[in-house]
Amino acid sequence: MPTYAYACKDCGHAFDAVQSFSDASLTECPACGGALRKQYGSIGVTFNGSGFYRTDARASTGAAEGKSAAAPASSSQAASTSGSSGAVAASA
């Protein structure tokens, strides 16, 4: 059963109450009899699966670096190929 946090609008008294989902919300402060309001807080979040860990991010970063390192090598090969074809044209 969930735990709900309540606070009194009049006196500021705050407390927690364990209630079922089907139970009605509390409306009267046990300390002074004033009106209550339900307080909402944050919940714990758990990330499961791939993509949430530092090691997952490193794998994709390393692959991107490998691709960028391969690109200049292709440019070098293209330059050497054009240089050799230019030499062939000059000697012919």
Please give the structural blueprint:
Layout: E1 3-8, E2 14-18, E3 36-39, H1 54-91
Antiparallel strand pairs: 1-2, 1-3
Question: Spans of 5+ residues with little confidence (pLDDT < 50)?
Answer: none
Largest sheet: 3 strands, antiparallel
Average per-residue pLDDT, rounded, comes to: 74
Alpha carbon gyration radius:
34 Å
What distance lies between the first and last C-alpha atoms, to the nearest angstrom?
A: 90 Å
**Beta content:** 15-25%
Number of beta strands:
3
Structure description:
With 92 residues, the chain is of the alpha+beta class. 41% of the residues lie in helices and 16% in strands. It has a domain at 3-39. The chain is built from 1 helix and 3 strands. The chain has a 3-stranded antiparallel beta sheet, with no helix packed on it. A hairpin with a 5-residue loop joins β1 and β2 (14-18).
Q: How do you describe this structure in short?
A:
The protein is of the alpha+beta class.
Q: Which properties best describe this structure?
A:
92 residues, alpha+beta, 1 helix, 3 strands, 41% helix
